[in-house]
Amino acid sequence: MNLPPLHQDFILHFGEMGSRWGINRTVGQIYALLFLSEEPLNAETITDALSISRSNTSMGLKELQSWNLVRLRHKPGDRRDYFTTPDDLWEIVRTLVAERRKREIDPTLSTLRELEMRGPGGDAYAEARIAELRELIEMMTQFHDEMSRMETERLVQLMTMGRRLGGLLDTAQKMKIWGKS
User: Fold this and answer.
1) Which carries the bigger pLDDT value, residue 38 or residue 163?
2) Strand (E) or helix (H) holding 71
3) What is the rounded CA–CA span in Å between residue 27 and residue 176?
4) Which regions form coiled coils (predicted)?
5) 135 neighbors 145 (Cβ within 8 angstroms)
6) Does the pTM exceed 0.85?
């Protein structure tokens, strides 16, 4: 990579983290490069910057598009496709959460519901654990739905208030005003 050290370190780290998040290392590196770039980049520039094959670049960009994490851009007089990431970090986070939910949480929730609909299977403990897990996941998805409808400014306020509320609950519990006594 013929990039500044800051870029290189970020891109390499993002590639390593990508593999832990369930995406290909190269896909993580492509995303990191686009994330740091002020201007949209074409596939040739990405290929050269990361010293990867053109086919890896193409497959990586397709995967990032399937996750709705990159935007396709065109430049006047240039027939090539250019790619960029959203400027709004909250949009990126919301997209990641929504995509992970669609790919991981929703299928699990469907399976848990199907298992419960089978009726008594002779293992009351397992049935209760499945029901408990389904209820927790449903609560989390309802919370996600509410948060995803919220404007970014309100969401930031809520998160800031959440930290304060945690401290307030700790104080109230110590004073035996609220909670277990």
Assistant:
1) 38
2) strand 71-75
3) 51
4) none
5) no
6) no
